[in-house]
Structures are given as structure tokens and as C-alpha cells.
Amino acid sequence: MNTETTIAPVRTPKPKWLRVKLPTGKKYTELRSLVDKYDLHTICTSGSCPNMGECWSEGTATFMILGNVCTRSCGFCGVKTGRPDTLDWEEPEKVARSIKLMGIKHAVVTSVDRDDLKDMGSIMWAETVKAIRRMNPETTLETLIPDFQGNERNIDRIVEVSPEVVSHNMETVKRLTREVRIQAQYERSLGVLKYLKQQGIRRTKSGIMLGLGETEEEVLQTMRDLRDADVDVVTIGQYLQPSKKHLEVKQFITPDQFKKYEVLGLEMGFRHVESSALVRSSYKAQKHIN
Asked: What is the pTM of this model?
């Protein structure tokens, strides 16, 4: 008779600085009502972003294009992976209408990776920016783009429509890239950011997550690599595990450590550094155009 018992692993509870209040306020309530009434799709709601109330109150929201199924299987990301649906060529107009209905002053647009398409989705990207410009001429834009496998013709389509900010996330340090971003390459992402600047994009931006097992020196080296690529803005936040199938959190970074990265980043020459546990790619995005 087997008398052994199995002890469940003890999960480290989230520290108090990761607790957030539910979003409130008149502007948030109005926008939430519009989103529900017209079935508008934002990453803010679908991703349950902790900063949704703050961003919406400042007239900023994030939209995802090219469907909701990604061709890549990154270890940190909660987006479904698999064979994507066919493209919806009405999507650019739908996004533009959503921005108009919500009265968005600064829109962030992102997408899944579409490695299944010859143009990697870059044509849809360009058409979306054009549609937003036509319907919302006063709205400023940030495009948080995939790497397009480093294909310059595809990247040029973003350059040609000239968003105020173009962002591409490194996500993690060089040593962990293969584990965290399975189909991505650290040097390729740096190359995309450098190319964007060389082609005349005025403001470039990138983001990294902490808590995946990186060291302080590795984080600082990533920040130095971004500055060497002439990146203007960096966002640094805490990784949180979307499900049991995803990579585990190795460490909860303290507020003091986040502050240290902010100070050092500004000393390196970044124009803006957003560094705290709840920071996400589009946090305070409206300020990054300046």
C-alpha cells in the first residue's frame, strides 16, 4: 500500500504593489458603455489591463488588428496561437469608427504576428493607419508592430504612413529570448528598431518585461542596446503569468528596483522611461509623442 502523499507546490502570492483598484470615473464609465453598446474591440478590455481606467480617462486606448489568432507561440503571451482566419478587409474602417465613437485622442494599434501572409500583414497595417487618419484627423497614433521577420519592404509600409510613434517590443533580455519569444530573434528586433529610425521615424519605442529570471546587468545591457539603436522610449513592467501553460514568474521586482531602472534609463539618454510593476506597452502612450 502506498502511503506517500503529494504536496502541491506553494505559489508565491502577489505582493501588495501589484494590487489595483477597479477603474472608475465619468470618462471611463462613458467609454465602457460605448464599448459594450457597439461591441468595440480593445486590448484594454480583452486583456483586462490594470491601467485601463487611467488611460481611458486621458483619451488613450489600444486596438488589435489582423484577427486574434497568432502564428507564433511565445511563452509569455495569452493570445491564442494556431492557424489564423482569413483577413477582414473591412477591419481598418471598423477600427477607425471605433476610435471616432470613443472620442480617442491618442490611439495605439497592435496586432498578432501573421507569418502565414506574404506581406506579414503589413498592407493591412498601412490601410488601418490611413483609415484612422481619414476619419480621425486630430487623433495621434502609435503603431506597436511585429518584426515582419525583418523584411524591409514590409517595414517600409509602416514608415510610409508615418505614425507619430512606432514601437516594437524586445520583451526580454538576449539570453532569455529563445525561451520567451520562441520564433523571434533579439538582434532582428534591434535591427527593426534601428531601421525605423534610419528611415526617418521621429519617435521609436520598445518594451521589456521583468521577472522571468533576468539579471540586473542583463536588463541594463538590453537598455544600452536599445539606446545604441537610437530608441527614444522604453517601457519596463512586471511579467504576470496568463495561465498555467505559460512561463512561470521567477521573481516579483520591487518598486525600488523599477525606480532604479527609470533613473538609469534617463541617464542613458532615453526621452521617456516608464518603469513600474503595472506598466504595459501603451502606458502613458500619449506622452511619448513629445
From this structure: 0.88
In 66-100, which positions are buried (b, 16+ CB within 10 angstroms) versus exposed (e)? bbeebbbebbbbebeeeebeeeeeebbebbbbbbe
Task: Using pLDDT thresholds of 50, 70 and 90, give the confidence band for residue 7.
Answer: very low
> What's the distance, Cα to Cα, between the start and end of the chain in Å?
70
Contact 218, 228 (CB under 8 A): no
Q: How far apart are CA 218 and CA 119, in angstroms?
A: 33
Single out the residue of 221, 133, 217, 108 nearest to residue 170, CA to CA: 221
> pLDDT at position 40, please?
64
pLDDT at 117: 95
> Tell me: the pLDDT tens digits for 38-80?
666 677 765 567 777 777 777 888 898 998 888 887 766 767 7
pLDDT digits (tens, 9 = 90+) for 81-95: 788 889 999 999 999
The Cα 147–Cα 226 span in angstroms is: 15
Half-sphere exposure of 190 (CA within 13 A, CB side): 17
DSSP sequence for 45-104:
HHTT-TTHHHHHHTTEEEEEES-SEES---TT--SEES-PPPP-TTHHHHHHHHHHHHT-
